[in-house]
C-alpha cells in the first residue's frame, strides 16, 4: 500500500507539471485532438466518484486530497446515513440524482461490461457499491419511511466550505405515507434492481438483498402515490420533479429484468396509459435524472418486455428518440453547435450529452442484433449512424472541438482548471489543516476568477459550452459551465468502455 501511495503522489505531481507546460504549447481548435484514449478516460471517469464520496473514506482512496466528511449524517433522526455521494460541487446528498447515478452506473456495467478491463470493472463495481450501500441505509425503514436527502441546500449554497469543514445544518428529509415521493422511490427501486444484476455473479447474497429491497421500495412508490416535491423547499428548485409516472414504468421495467419475469407488466401497462392520456406526445425524446421516457422504451424493447410482448410501439418510440437526435433526420428536434456538440440546455448541457449518447449506443447495439434500421419519416438510417453520433459526442468531450480542450479534468493536455467545486477550489486539508469557515470560504471564491483550482478532481466532466456556440468560460464563478455532477459521468463510463474496444 505504501508503494501505491507513493505512485499516486508521484503521478499527481507529474500530471500537474506536464499539464502546466504542455497547455501553453497546445494548438487551438479541434486539431488538438489526435485520437481518443478511451481506456485512460474510462479510468479517470470512474476515479471521479471517489472525489464525490461522503462519509468515512477507505484506505484505498485514490483522490488523496479528499478526507472524511459528514460522519454524523442521519443522527438528527436516529439513523446512520453516512456514505453516499455529493451530487455536484456542493455538499448536499440529494437522493433523486444519486439513485439515477446508481442506475446508470449499473446499466453501464450490464450493457458494456465485456469491454471493461478487469481493473476498471473492479473500480466501477466499487463506485456502484458505495452508492447502493447508502441507498440501502436510506431505505432501511421501508414501508414506513424512506430518507431522500441529507443537508439543507439553502444554507449549504450560502456557504463555500470544504465538505470536511461543513458546519451548515445536516437536516435529514424523508418521504412517508402522508408525504409521498413516488419518483424518487421508483428510481431507487430501479437502482437497487439494476445493481442486483451487476452483483449476482460475484455477491449473490448481497444481490438478493438488493432485489428484495428494490421490490419493497417499489411497492411503497405505487401504494403511496405522490410527487417528491412534497418535501418542499429543500427539494425544489434544486431537483424539481416533473411527474412520477415515467419513474414507475422505469422501475417496473428494471424489476422485470432483475427478476427475469413479467410480474410487473400491470404497472407498466397502467402507467403507460396514464402517460398517454396526460400527454399526446407519448414517445418522449428526453432522458435524464428527471425524465425516463426514452430510457424505459428502449429498456422495454431491449428486453422484450411489456403487456402481451407487443414491442412494436416501443420500436416506434425508440426510432422517434433516435430521429430527434440524428442531424440529417427530417424530425430532428435538437440543435448542434457549429463544432458538433448536441445542445439542449443552457444549464449543464453535458448532462444531456452523456445520457442521450448512452441511450443511442444501447439502441444501436439492439438494432445490430435484430438487423434493423432507424425509420425517420421517409428516410432510413443504419445503426452505424447512431454509433457515429454517440462517438462524436464522446470525442467532443475528450477534445475534438473548436476550443481544442478536453472537458474532463486531468484528461488530455488542455482541460478545465477552475471548476465550480468546493473541495477542488479550496486548499486541501493536507495543505491547510486549519478550518475554513463559511465566510472565509467566500474569500477564495471571490478571488481571481481565472485562478486554478489547488486540487484536481480527476475524471470530473463539467457542464461544458452552454450558449449554443462552442465557447467555454473556464471560471468557477460559472456553475453552469464548470460544475461537474455524478450523473454526467455515470452514463459516460459505459460509453468509454465500449469505445475503448470498438473504435
From TrEMBL:
Catalytic activity line of the entry: Endohydrolysis of (1->4)-beta-D-glucosidic linkages in cellulose, lichenin and cereal beta-D-glucans
Listed GO MF terms: cellulase activity
Keyword Hydrolase included in the entry's annotation: yes
Gene3D superfamilies named in the record: 1.50.10.10
Classification via Pfam families: Glyco_hydro_9
Biological process annotations from GO: cellulose catabolic process
Residue ranges of domain Glycoside hydrolase family in the record: 38-496
Xref: SUPFAM superfamilies: Six-hairpin glycosidases (SSF48208)
Signal peptide positions (record): 1-23
KW Transmembrane helix (keyword) present: no
Enzyme category, top tier: hydrolase
Keyword vocabulary terms for this entry: Carbohydrate metabolism, Cellulose degradation, Glycosidase, Hydrolase, Polysaccharide degradation, Signal
Coiled-coil blocks: none
EC number(s) recorded for this UniProt protein: 3.2.1.4
UniProt-listed PANTHER family: ENDO-1,4-BETA-GLUCANASE
Family stated for the protein in its record: Belongs to the glycosyl hydrolase 9 (cellulase E) family.
Name the UniProt record assigns to this protein: cellulase
Organism: Canna indica
Amino acid at each position: 500500500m505504501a508503494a501505491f501511495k507513493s505512485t499516486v503522489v508521484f503521478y499527481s505531481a507529474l500530471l500537474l507539471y506536464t499539464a502546466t507546460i504542455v497547455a501553453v504549447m497546445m494548438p487551438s481548435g479541434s486539431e488538438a485532438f489526435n485520437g481518443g484514449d478511451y481506456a485512460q478516460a474510462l479510468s479517470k471517469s470512474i476515479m471521479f466518484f471517489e472525489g464525490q464520496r461522503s462519509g468515512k473514506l477507505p484506505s484505498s482512496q485514490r483522490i488523496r486530497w479528499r478526507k472524511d466528511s459528514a460522519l454524523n449524517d442521519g443522527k438528527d433522526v436516529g439513523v446512520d446515513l453516512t456514505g453516499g455521494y455529493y451530487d455536484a460541487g456542493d455538499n448536499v446528498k440529494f437522493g433523486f440524482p444519486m439513485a439515477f447515478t446508481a442506475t446508470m452506473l449499473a446499466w453501464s456495467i450490464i450493457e458494456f461490461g465485456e469491454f471493461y478491463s478487469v481493473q476498471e470493472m473492479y473500480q466501477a463495481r466499487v463506485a456502484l457499491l458505495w452508492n447502493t450501500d447508502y441507498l440501502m441505509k436510506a431505505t432501511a425503514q421501508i414501508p414506513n419511511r424512506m430518507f431522500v436527502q441529507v443537508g439543507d441546500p439553502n444554507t449549504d449554497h450560502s456557504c463555500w466550505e470544504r465538505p470536511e469543514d461543513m458546519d451548515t445544518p445536516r437536516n435529514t428529509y424523508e418521504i412517508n405515507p402522508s408525504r409521498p415521493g413516488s419518483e424518487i422511490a421508483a428510481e431507487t427501486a430501479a437502482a437497487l434492481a439494476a445493481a442486483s444484476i451487476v452483483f449476482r455473479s460475484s455477491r449473490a447474497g448481497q444481490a438478493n438483498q438488493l432485489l428484495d429491497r428494490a421490490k419493497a421500495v417499489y411497492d411503497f412508490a405505487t401504494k403511496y402515490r405522490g410527487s417528491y416535491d412534497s418535501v418542499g423547499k429543500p427539494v425544489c428548485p434544486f431537483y424539481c420533479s416533473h411527474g412520477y409516472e415515467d419513474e414507475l414504468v422505469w422501475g417496473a421495467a428494471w424489476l422485470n429484468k432483475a427478476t427475469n419475469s413479467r410480474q410487473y407488466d400491470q404497472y407498466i401497462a397502467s402507467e403507460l396509459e396514464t402517460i398517454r392520456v396526460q400527454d399526446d406526445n407519448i414517445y418522449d425524446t428526453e432522458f435524464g435524472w428527471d425524465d425516463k421516457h426514452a430510457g424505459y422504451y428502449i429498456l422495454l424493447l431491449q428486453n422484450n418486455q411489456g403487456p402481451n410482448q407487443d414491442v412494436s410501439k416501443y420500436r416506434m418510440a425508440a426510432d422517434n428518440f433516435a430521429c430527434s437526435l440524428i442531424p440529417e433526420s427530417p424530425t430532428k428536434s435538437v440543435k448542434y453547435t457549429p463544432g458538433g456538440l448536441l445542445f439542449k440546455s443552457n444549464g449543464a448541457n453535458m448532462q444531456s450529452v452523456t445520457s442521450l449518447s448512452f441511450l443511442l449506443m444501447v439502441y444501436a447495439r439492439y438494432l445490430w442484433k435484430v438487423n434493423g434500421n432507424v425509420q425517420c419519416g421517409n428516410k432510413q438510417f443504419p445503426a452505424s449512424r447512431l454509433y457515429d453520433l454517440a462517438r462524436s459526442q464522446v470525442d467532443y468531450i475528450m477534445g475534438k472541438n473548436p476550443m481544442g480542450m478536453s472537458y474532463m479534468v486531468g484528461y488530455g493536455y488542455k482541460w478545465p482548471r477552475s471548476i465550480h467545486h468546493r473541495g477542488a477550489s479550496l486548499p486541501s486539508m493536507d495543505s491547510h489543516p486549519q478550518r475554513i469557515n463559511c465566510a472565509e470560504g467566500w474569500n477564495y471564491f471571490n478571488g481571481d476568477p481565472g485562478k486554478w483550482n489547488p486540487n484536481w478532481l480527476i475524471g470530473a466532466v463539467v457542464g461544458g459550452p452552454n450558449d449554443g456556440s462552442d465557447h467555454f468560460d473556464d471560471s468557477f464563478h460559472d456553475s453552469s459551465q464548470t460544475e461537474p455532477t455524478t450523473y454526467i459521468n455515470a452514463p459516460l463510463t459505459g460509453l468509454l468502455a465500449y469505445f475503448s474496444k470498438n473504435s
